[in-house]
Amino acid sequence: MYTIASARQALDSREISSQELTREYLSRAKEKNPTFNAFITIAEDEAMAAALAADEKIKKGEAGTLTGIPFGVKDAICTADIRSTASAKILDTYTPPFDATVIRKIRAQGGVIIGKQNCDAFGHGASNENSMYGAVKNPWDTERVPGGSSGGSAASVAADMCVYSIAEDTGGSIRQPAAFNNLVGLRPSYGRNSRYGIMPMASSLDTVGPITKTVEDCAIVMEAIAGRDPLDATTVPDVVPAYTEGLRESIKGLRIGIPREYIQDLPNNLQKIIDDAADAFRQMGCEVMDVSLPHTNYAIPVYYIIVPSEDSSNLSRMDGVRYGVRAHEKDLQNVYMQSRAHGFPAEVKRRIMVGTFALSHGYYDAYYKKAQQVRTRIMRDFEEAFNRVDVLLAPTTPTPAFKIGEKANDPLAMYKADIFVGPAAVAGVPAVSVPGGFVDNLPFGVQFIGPRMSEDMILRAAYHFEQATGHGKRVP
Fold this sequence. Notes:
This protein is of the alpha/beta class. The chain has a domain at 4-250: Amidase signature (AS) enzymes (Alpha-Beta Complex). Helices cover 40% and strands 13% of the residues. It has 17 helices and 11 strands. Strands 1-3-2-4-6-5-10-11-9-7-8 form an 11-stranded mixed β-sheet, with helices on both faces. β2 (70-74), α4 (101-109) and β3 (112-117) form a beta-alpha-beta unit. The protein is globular, with a radius of gyration of 21 Å. The N and C termini lie close together (12 Å).
């Protein structure tokens, strides 16, 4: 099982070529995918061509950190000349003519895309059951969900079908699947990475980041993809730190806060994981204290007003006319209606209708505007907490992975699965989930949350925790 760091060493020492490494992962993906359904498209020809080019780069001494290393991409992210469906039948035939900026940066280094990964359609879901290409199964227990919406991205890394994945996190879609699969998943600060070429869900919350096997790998990917992009006006001009160099710096004296609202209702076996994590930091010379984020309970209601509202606007472009699958009808109105009726799953339709209602005349002030006002309160909660502490430590999810179908008929129960990942998303601050321990042989993640643009600090805290505990070494 290769990490990015170990694959880089093997490639640079000529222990293995990119073509050999890519064949190995393609073979594994094709063998395992019928079991886990993690990939929608396996791009064998494109991957082997990229691996050949990568080997030439390596021979010439022009290799970057990601050159020649096979990775997967969430299917809601555009990849030039490789089908990108967002797991919705309305885009079943869509092949983008361009790469998302983060993908272009990796491909420029010589990274090798081996396929596009299954997800909840357009990122709408917390279980990967809302894909129109079938549910993804968790490699730790195939009767359980891998998390959502980036479930295929996490499952494929956990099952070692690719070395790492590039995914998207609007309200927890990287961190929750990482937690359910004993992986590392980073949601960067809003504006840290370019969103250009990411199929938009909620434009004021969408972020793109890595799912990896180790914190070091996560830092390596972030160095490659972060930074300002003229194609995305929301990106910030801040210099990208050398994330990997800062990982091993001492964290002695770091102030760790545990939000009481995140742990007040945790069962004892999950509370013990947070207590053990706090003890690990005390032994490393950190100060651990309780903090309060009083508006935490409002994060999910706020999220499910803002996100459907922005969804309804963004998805209006999916009309069956400009790209994707078109229904064959006699008039334009029915083309729109039938293309969407057959091309969108139920959860996408639900969010469009809720969002359209929330933005409608007479309701905008009561719903969308009010949600944005409460969102500001949630942001201030984090600002006040970070006046006292450097990093927040919290559970990533309220439970380990739940069973497929367990919450499928209860949308509110499904929405509550994001209760601990939603607040950081609403506030636009960075958070990284790392393996925190096991409950009944199922992975349970903890997350580190920091102030805006503090990815270097939360990755450093996560790295020291990873090294002290070793939970991430266990594989399915």
